[in-house]
Amino acid sequence: MRTPTADGLARAGLDREAVERIVQAALAEDLGPDRIDVTSVATIPSDQADAGDLVAREAGVVAGLPVAVLVYELVSEGAIAIELLVGDGDRVGPGTALARVAGPTRALLMAERTVLNLLSRMSGVATHTRHWAEALAGTTAQILDTRKTTPGLRVLDKYAVRAGGGTNKRMGLYDVAMIKDNHRLGAGGVGEAFQRVRAAFPGMTVQVEVETVAEAVEAVAAGANFLLCDNMTPELLRTVVAAVGNRAELEATGGLTLDVARVYAETGVDYLSVGALTHSSPILDIAFDLTPIG
After folding, report:
1. Which long-range contacts (CB under 8 A, 24 or more apart) does 250-259 make?
2. Does one domain contain both 152 and 113?
3. Would you call 262 exposed, middle or buried from its count of C-beta atoms within 10 A (0-12, 13-18, 19+)?
């Protein structure tokens, strides 16, 4: 049995330091200040070793295996061997073994809930995202996430979206300027807000939320090349697409559901933005099945 290294995080585009902070916080919730699992210490001899499988109980898309590897590494200080049997982004069926682990039984049980919490959540987001990606297949539109993530878990939520076939939007308020309705009201108009952002942060990507064809035309005239079309009907979106042409990328956002996804994608917009990918995805049911040795 081979043990994947932390290189798996790098290959997944995840920063180890950021992920480790999340994992350590999750472990602290379970193990407390003394880092102890009282039940396992009481019932399992310190020298006992066993194996086990992480198993999908239902069909879905996997995400978070490099994170699970890190949990096992931190809990056992490298004493747990791990063999990954599938990869992130893979579709699996009920009963599919995702990974096989072996090592000190206490450590396996100490890590179990943290591994399952993170892996199940991330796989749930990836599975939900895949449904949207498949609904848009054959169109030119892509599915985008939002900042509607669980505080502290954004880096994992957005990675799971990528694993499911979606695209990440901005990570936060620092990497992309997004002029929304309150900014527009505060600045006195779309054009004025855009010019103020451009003056303050000349190299920053600027996206502008619009609600009418007139606002879209005004924003493009001011220099915007990415528009968020908020709560527009498909008919209105087609009008905006025609008015803007190729001068800006267009994103449909606000109250979108899977049953109308394709209708919106076929209006000619470039993206559909869906907060539900990260704030409303059910988990994928994943379990840990211990296999005693000897």
Report:
1. 250/226, 251/144, 251/207, 251/226, 251/227, 252/141, 253/146, 253/209, 253/228, 253/229, 254/230, 255/231, 258/131, 258/132, 258/135
2. no
3. middle
Q: What is the CATH number of the domain that holds 82?
A: 3.90.1170.20
Is residue 181 annotated as part of the catalytic site, yes or no?
no
Low pLDDT (below 50) residues in the chain? none
Question: What's 238's domain CATH number?
Answer: 3.20.20.70
Q: What is the pLDDT of residue 46?
A: 95
Choose, from 209, 215, 218, 251, the residue flagged as catalytic.
Answer: 209
The answer to whether residue 175 is catalytic is no
The answer to whether the beta carbons of residues 117 and 62 sit under 8 Å apart is no
Catalytic-residue membership of 180: yes
Instruction: Please tell me whether residues 250 and 114 are part of one structural domain.
Output: no
Q: Does 209 qualify as catalytic in the annotation? A: yes
Per-residue pLDDT, 7: 78
Catalytic residue among 147, 148, 238, 262: 148
Residue 3 has a pLDDT of 59
Please report the pLDDT score of residue 191 as a whole number.
Answer: 87
Show the tokens assigned to 265. 């994608």
74 φ/ψ angles, rounded to the nearest 5 degrees: -70, -40
